Amino acid sequence: KAGVTQTPRYLIKTRGQQVTLSCSPISGHRSVSWYQQTPGQGLQFLFEYFSETQRNKGNFPGRFSGRQFSNSRSEMNVSTLELGDSALYLCASSYGTDTQYFGPGTRLTVL
Amino acid sequence: KQEVTQIPAALSVPEGENLVLNCSFTDSAIYNLQWFRQDPGKGLTSLLLIQSSQREQTSGRLNASLDKSSGRSTLYIAASQPGDSATYLCAVLEDYKLSFGAGTTVTVRA
C-alpha cells in the first residue's frame, strides 16, 4: 500500500505571496490532518478533515485554510505569507482513531 | 488545554544499553497515545499505538506502557543500536487532533 504523499516537497516563496500544499492519504483513509513543525514551537495542529468536513481547527490565523475533496485528498492554503510561516508542513492520514501515518512533509521557506 | 512533556530532552548512550524515554500529559481524556520517530528533516514514522483502554504495547525491541490515570507513558528500547539515533516524539489523540511533546533526541554511540 502506498504511503501518504505530499507535494511539493520543497517550496520557496516571498512575503505576501500565497501557497497551496497537497496531501494524498493512504488508500481507504478518510481522515486527513495537517501539522506545522518549527524549531521554536515544535509540532502544532492546523486542522483535521473527515469526508470533506473540518472537524477540528488549531489556533492559527485565518490566513491558513484547508479543504478535502471527495477522494479524501486534501489541500491547505496559506495566504499573505509571512517570514514566520517558514516551516515543515506535515500531513497525516488515518482510519478512524487508529494509527496516524505521516507523509514526508513540505518544506516551505519564506524570504 | 492538553500539555505533553517529554523528559529528558536529549540522551546519549553506548550501543547495547537499554533506552527509557518518558512522556507525561495533563488531560487523561484521550483516545490513544502514539510514539513516533523522526530523523532529521524527515517526516514522522509511527512506532507504537496504545489505545486508552490498553496498558502496554510491544513491537520487536520496543515496548510502551500507558498509565492513563497518572498521565504517563514510557517507551523502552532494548539493546540500542546506532540506527536508533533519532528524535522520539509522543503524542496523545483527543478531539481528532494530536498534541505532541517536544521530543527526546537520542544518540547511540558505537
Using CB atoms under 8 Å apart, which protein chain pair has the greatest interface?
A-B, 25 and 23 residues
> Strand-and-helix sequence of chain B, N→C?
EEEEEEEEEEE
Major sheet of chain B: 6 strands, mixed
Question: From the helix content, strand content and strand pairing of chain B, which structural class follows?
Answer: mainly beta
Estimate the global geometry of chain B from the Cα principal axes.
globular
Order of helices and strands of chain A: EEEEEEEEEEE
DSSP strand count of chain A: 11
Average of the residue pLDDT scores of chain A: 96
Low-confidence segments of chain B: none
Q: How would a crystallographer describe the biggest sheet of chain A?
A: 7 strands, mixed
Briefly note the structural class of the backbone of chain A.
mainly beta
Number of helical elements of chain B: 0
Structure overview:
The complex is a heterodimer of chains A (111) and B (110). With 111 residues, chain A is mostly beta strands. Chain A has no helices and eleven strands. Chain B has strands spanning 4-7, 10-14, 19-25, 32-38, 44-51, 56-59, 62-67, 72-77, 86-94, 97-100, 104-109. In chain B, strand 7 (62-67) and strand 8 (72-77) form a beta hairpin. The model of chain B has no long low-confidence stretch (mean pLDDT 96). The termini of chain B are far apart. Chain B contains no helices and eleven strands. Helix content of chain B is 0%, strand content 60%. The interface between A and B is medium-sized, with 25 and 23 residues.
